[in-house]
Amino acid sequence: MNEASTIEQRKPISAFIICCNEENYIADCVKSVAFCDEVLVVDSFSSDRTVEIAKELGAKVIQREWPGYKKQKSYALSQTSHEWVLNLDADERVSETLKNNILEVLRRESMNGSSSSVIGYDVNRLVYYLGRWWRKGGWYPEYRLRFFRKSQVTWGGIDPHEKPIPHGPTGRLDGDIYHFTYKDMNDQADRLNKFSTLAAKERFAIGEQPSLIKMLVNPWVRFVKFYFLKRGFQEGMAGFIIAVLEGYYTFMKYAKLWEFHYNAKKAADEGKS
């Protein structure tokens, strides 16, 4: 899988991607990490050509039932072969600048003969949506830990907002991960509905109680953060629309949490009668 020169001395790296039915995205994603020594795709039994395309491009493919984002990524990480790991979603790509900076880190690691104290690097994710790259505000900048030492992280967070938890100091790398986040507003609305259900279910499972205050306040906080604090207004009408949808997602998450508790209480009451 490695397109880098066999002469250069650097630490090896694995890339891993989890996916299901991503035939429209998986090729560009896998091609963008062709510089890695291993590309691992963990697929949840796609019914389209996702697996075929990934294999044609030289990726190692493992098929596994879908247990949730957090568990699937934790599993995928455990299946990688190298200490340094890069994680992408199927609708993401590594930019040339980021690729070069990752390779430079791996060269320094090899030349120094010993590991630095930095166990991973946050990378900016640049969104393409509604016909534009979001460079002015709202979703930009958006740093996430994507390049790290396998032995120095565990997968945490709450689905669908899982994340690697570092056990040591991290740095930042220049260069972007390009994110082709939604096809259109219908796609965005569908995903926000799905993600708000998943988020509410996870919170219900850990015993979080519904809160009228959170339902009233948090959607406005999310809107203000996106539109004003993160300068989404600089994206014009598109920025306003996305800020409203961000608030909508937050409202639905807490409303559905209330619904889960309501249904559980109703079922318990019916069981007593």
Task: Give me the secondary-structure topology.
Elements: E1 13-19, H1 26-32, E2 38-43, H2 50-56, E3 60-63, H3 69-79, E4 84-89, E5 92-94, H4 96-112, E6 120-129, E7 132-133, E8 143-149, E9 153-158, E10 161-166, E11 170-179, H5 185-205, H6 212-229, H7 236-272
Parallel strand pairs: 1-2, 1-4, 2-3, 6-11
Antiparallel strand pairs: 4-8, 5-11, 6-7, 6-8, 9-10
Tally of separate domains: 2
Low-pLDDT ranges: none
Q: What is the rounded Rg?
A: 20 Å
Oligomer: single chain
Q: What characterizes the major β-sheet? A: 9 strands, mixed
Question: According to CATH, what is the topology of the largest domain?
Answer: Spore Coat Polysaccharide Biosynthesis Protein SpsA, Chain A
Name given to the CATH architecture of the largest domain:
Alpha-Beta Complex
Report the CATH superfamily of the largest domain.
Answer: Spore Coat Polysaccharide Biosynthesis Protein SpsA, Chain A
What is the residue-mean pLDDT, rounded to a whole number?
95
The computed structural class is: alpha/beta
**Portion in strands:** 15-25%
End-to-end Cα distance, whole Å, is 63 Å
| CATH class division of the largest domain | Alpha Beta
Structure explained in plain terms:
This protein is an alpha/beta fold and 273 residues long. The chain folds into 2 domains: 13-179, Spore Coat Polysaccharide Biosynthesis Protein SpsA, Chain A (Alpha-Beta Complex), CATH 3.90.550; 185-272, no CATH class. It has 7 helices and 11 strands. The protein has helices at 26-32, 50-56, 69-79, 96-112, 185-205, 212-229, 236-272; strands at 13-19, 38-43, 60-63, 84-89, 92-94, 120-129, 132-133, 143-149, 153-158, 161-166, 170-179. Strands 1, 2, 3, 4, 5, 6, 7, 8 and 11 form a 9-stranded mixed β-sheet that branches. Strand 6 (120-129) and strand 7 form a beta hairpin. Helix 5 (185-205) runs parallel beside helix 7 (236-272) and helix 6 (212-229) packs antiparallel against helix 7 (236-272). The longest helix has 37 residues, at 236-272. It is globular. The mean pLDDT is 95.
